Amino acid sequence: MPSRVTLLLGKPPRPGTLLAEVADELETRGLTVTVRLPHEEPVEAADLAAESLVVHRGLNGSVTSVLGELHHRGVPLCNPWPADRLLRDRRSWQAALAAAEVPLPPSITVERWPDVLARAGTQQVVAKAFAGPGRGTQVVTGTGRTLPRDAPFPGPYLVEQRLPADGTDRKLYLAGRVVRGLLKASTLEGRHTTSGTPFEPDAVQVDLALRVQRALGAHLIGVDLLHTPTGPVVVDVNGFPGFRGVPGAVPLVTEHILEHVAGPSAG
Q1: Among 29, 9, 17, 12, which residue's Cα sits nearest to residue 257?
Q2: C-alpha 3: how far from its chain's center?
Q3: What average pLDDT does the structure give for the chain?
Q4: pTM across the whole model
Q5: Which run of H or of E encompasses 214?
Q6: What is the pLDDT of residues 9-18, one digit of tens each?
Q7: What does the alpha-carbon distance between residue 226 and residue 264 come to, in Å, rounded to a whole number?
Q8: Residue 265's closest CA among 166, 153, 177?
Q9: How many CA atoms does the CB half-sphere of 187 hold within 13 Å?
């Protein structure tokens, strides 16, 4: 009987996207692949209890209880449920990384937007929501004088010191112990873009990315680094990024999933 993999997704995979191509590749390798969309259809953990692996991406908080039940039933998950829970709360994953002595921007948590303005004062800060990506409408930067007067998004707020850097984000993509990199213009300097320039991460960057992965217990993650005068600093972590622009992304993710299907020792 072929191994069974379920892709538990927030939306249908479009042709030509990473997971659509990964699903096709898995099937050519002899696996049975099923796509389930719990935002659009009822999905019970009992339905997936016999799966060799459940790969999930893009699920909102209303359906993640299914992942918790699958975890307790012993169904292999990618990413594992404990890592997924950490990555849904910026305070939680930052606390885990701080405990592992991973370099992070100095930060504080405040409840009200006026307190963000007061805490910022004359220094440049980055204010972020506790959940969501480290860019877009959930992130603003400036001083107490230049930040918006009214709250740009609901609190509480994580307020980080804005570190001196070169304006380029080093975005590292991990599938197991394989690390690939893209250079992108900082989203604090301009608009978010899905394009980037591939680069070969150096030994320090690779070691830092793997430390993040171990601290969170994750398999497929994106780690954003800033290069500062004192060295690289982790400014964001994402569970199962889209790997857009990463050379060889489809075989990279496919091989990683196959390793997990092959046995529990894969990581």
Answers
A1: 29
A2: 27
A3: 92
A4: 0.92
A5: helix 203-216
A6: 999 999 999 9
A7: 34
A8: 177
A9: 21
Q: Which residues contact 122 (CB under 8 A, 6 or more apart)?
A: 143, 144, 145
Rounded CA-CA distance 75/13 in Å is 23
CA distance 179 to 265: 19
What number of other Cβ atoms are within 10 A of residue 98's Cβ? 13
Token representation of residue 247: 């050379």
CB 155 within 8 A of CB 109: no
Tell me the C-alpha distance between 223 and 204, whole Å.
13
DSSP structure class, residue 14: P
First to last CA, the chain: 24
Q: Which of 45-49, 136-140, 199-203 has the least mean pLDDT? A: 136-140
Provide the residue count of the chain: 267
Query: pLDDT tens across 54-63, in order?
Result: 999 999 988 8
Q: How far apart are CA 195 and CA 21, in angstroms?
A: 19
pLDDT of 37 above 70: yes
Q: What amino acid is encoded at 222 in this protein? A: G
CB 83 within 8 A of CB 216: yes
DSSP 94-124: HHHHHHTT-----EEEESSHHHHHHHHTTS-
**256 within 8 A of 175, measured Cβ to Cβ:** yes
Tokens encoding 209: 């990315």
Beta strand 220-228 pairing with 168-175 = antiparallel
pLDDT, tens digit, 9 for 90 and up, residues 152-180: 999 999 999 999 988 899 999 999 999 99
Question: Of the candidates 33, 67, 66, 73, which has an alpha carbon nearest to the alpha carbon of residue 49?
Answer: 73
Q: Which two tokens stand for residue 151?
A: 């709250």
The dihedral sign for the CA sequence 54, 58, 63, 65: positive
